[in-house]
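Notes to self after the Tuesday call (sharing in case useful).
The group wants a holo model before anyone commits to mutagenesis around the pocket. I volunteered. Ligand is fe (iii) ion. Logging inputs and output together so the record is complete.
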Amino acid sequence: MVNVDLHLHTTFSDGNLTPDKLIQLALKKNLHVISITDHDCTDGIDEAILAASDSNLTIIPGIELNTDTDDGEIHILGYFIDYQNKDLQKLLTECRNSRVERAKMIVEKLNGIGIDIQWERVQELAGHGAIGRPHIAKAMLETKSIRTFQEAFEKYIGRNGVAYIERFRLNVFEAISTIRQYHGIPVLAHPGYIKNLDKLLPNLIEFGLKGMEVFYANYDKNTINNLKNIASKYELIPCGGSDYHGIKTKTEKLPGALGPPIESVNQLIELKNKQS
Ligand code: AMP
Ligand code: ZN
Ligand code: FE
Ligand code: FE
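Result:
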């Protein structure tokens, strides 16, 4: 167990715990520094900060932006982003609206091939946050259209699934620029999934990438060591965390299962102070 976890989701995207409940869990796990990194949404940050205000737990405001490239999906984390900026919030609202339209289309497509789920139920499951495919998967589980969460992605709503539909999203360079524009520190999420990482990194760094996840959820020692070397080669701050969603699958890692050393947090803070 570690005491830094810089990748956590709440009910404001596709996590199952409210910010308040997540903070309680983080405190139970003895965490010292965490970041809330919901997809396209920062609305859970203030609730988390309030819930941690009587403790020694430090909360770094964060976000996770999903982008698409020819090599697949790439997610960019933004630490210390100026989440109270109105223009940023306008952009995030647009991103979330496009998620709603797309989710609706996926549900229609699923209904069309005989999968019995209700759009209203999917919306209900998404609640106040950014709606995403995991909410559709949950609805499918409820109606027993699938047996496991994974099956939903493999057969239906994953990139190669029969009901997959694209949505508007920033490209990876726009995501990095957006985070920089609002004084955040852009960090590449779960790079273990990315093909051609060595080729891609110099381009991302040119746009302002400052860190990369190394200590990530279920990466094994070899992967972590390999990523550590790559981060050090490109002088990227080694970050990481559990990417906890509270979906309770057998393989899900709990907050604090994996994360970077406190030195990485200090480097992020140092950079933040230099930037602003
Ligand atoms: P969306 O935001 O609608 O594009 O959905 C992306 C989210 O779905 C990711 O952040 C993951 O939490 C989840 N996800 C994507 N692909 C898979 C998969 N193959 N298996 C399980 N969860 C997935
Ligand atoms: Zn997620
Ligand atoms: Fe991600
Ligand atoms: Fe995530």
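Two things stood out.
The longest helix spans residues 86-112.
The beta strands are 4-8, 33-36, 58-69, 72-79, 185-188, 211-216, 237-241.
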